Amino acid sequence: MIILVGPVGSGAGDLAAELQGRGLTVADSDAFLEQREGMTGGDVAIFKGPEAYADAERVASLEALESGADVVVLGSGALGKTAGDEKGSVVRDRLDAAVAEGAIKVFLTAEAKVLMNRAGLDLPRSVAIGSPRSTYLTQLKARELIYEAGATKIDTTEGDWAALADAVMSLTEKS
To answer: How confident is the model at residue 95 (pLDDT cuts 50, 70, 90)?
Structure first.
């Protein structure tokens, strides 16, 4: 099993699609969340609140990890907000168990500007809502340690999904 983690904009969905095109099965926690909730994750966060979203993301992440898929994509907050986030420890513990059983954890990242552009934060924003870019960067810094722990780090800045899929596949040959 290959487990992809990383921030919004890291390209996990694009890489998973490339791997799926090579015949691997993919379980995406965001898809599990949408199926369970009957709405997008963004709508869950807006209409039910951030705590309900975090709870739904945890449940969906555990489902994805138990799916038996070749590739599991975990949402950006699936591992918690920080290393000390007790609620996120449930998913981190299950991920660690999967790694102990032979799964490969891959931390996808890119240059901050690329991440923000992919996340749609390259557009002008009203000052009335604060600074989404600053919030994103603060969140990224807080989560980076939990993404990185026990993972192979892969930079997706260039967005060459075929080459990145080759790199991920080479990790499975080493284990």
So the answer is: very high
Alpha-carbon distance of 65 to 38, in angstroms, equals 20
DSSP-derived secondary structure letter, 88: T
Number of Cβ within 10 Å of residue 30's Cβ equals 20
**Pairing, β 2-5 against β 104-109:** parallel
- Between residues 126 and 86, which one has the greater pLDDT? 86
> Would you tell me how many other CB atoms lie within 10 Å of the CB of residue 118?
18
Q: How far apart, in whole angstroms, are the C-alpha atoms of residue 42 and residue 115?
A: 18
Q: Which residue has the tokens 């993919």?
A: 26
CA distances from 65 to 56, 141, 166 (A): 14, 25, 22
Residues in the chain: 175
Neighbours of 79 (CB within 10 A): 25
CA proximity to 108, closest of 19, 34, 35:
19
